[in-house]
Design goal:
Bact_Acetyltransf, eight-stranded mixed sheet, five-stranded antiparallel sheet, 295 residues, transferase
Amino acid sequence: MPELPEVGTRVSLRYRLPAGSVPPMSDVVGHLREVGPTLLVETKAGDVVTVSTADVVSIRPLSAAPVRNRDIRNLEHAAALGWPGVEHEWLDGWLLRFGHGVTRRANSAVPLLPTPGEHLDEIANWYAARGARALLAVPDRLFRLLPDQPTDGENVVMSRQLTDGAVGASVAVTPRPDEAWLRLHPRQVPVDVLTAVVDGVVAFGTLEDAAVGRVAVTVAPDGTRWAGLSSVHVAEDARRRGLARTLCEGLLGWAFEQGATRAYVQVLADNAPATQLYASTGFGEHHRSRYVSLG
């Protein structure tokens, strides 16, 4: 059997079909989402092909396929609706978000329409009126930065297809974070920031009184229902037991029941353990984003 690339690799795979099939083999090109006794390959169209590892004839790693601007914009739009702060306002292609100044994601303006206007002074004034510094969230290719523009907080935005799922009995899912959830989470994020969502639903998961996380289901302009994982944390004395994986799969199972067909997560680029965790559950890099301060 050929050596298998890592999860997340884009591959060209040839495999045997059941005996008697004409033709006897088939091919698929896409990203590896799971490696084991069976392989899951997600195609560019979003279909997931399941292949028995024993039937693999050849597999060849490919360079990453380019992501279209509109795909980035659709995902970022759904993500912004899933973490909108407690106050938000549209300004000529920009979505301005304010969440008591807690977390950069809930307190930044993000360009979401194809031609966002040059309104940096107005954006700065909007945040100044709320006693906050103006911060831009700038995804790849959605807004042109100056060549020497300082940036901070680079995020890897990862995505995957949802094909099925169920909430495991061990994962408690609630519409609001309870006292146990808030006690376990290391960041003191106001509840109204955590529960805010625009035209969607949000849920909070707890596992074994040791792991917590959040998932929001929102709709992109192209109609895709996205599930966004965030605020995932495992108590230090409970790590390396697979709790984060079980928790995330439970939350994504809940999201699938709400009609989500794709999922995303935003991870700091220097957080290798988190990136590896999500890659092992079928997520692959979609694009990157970073923050720019206006003052």
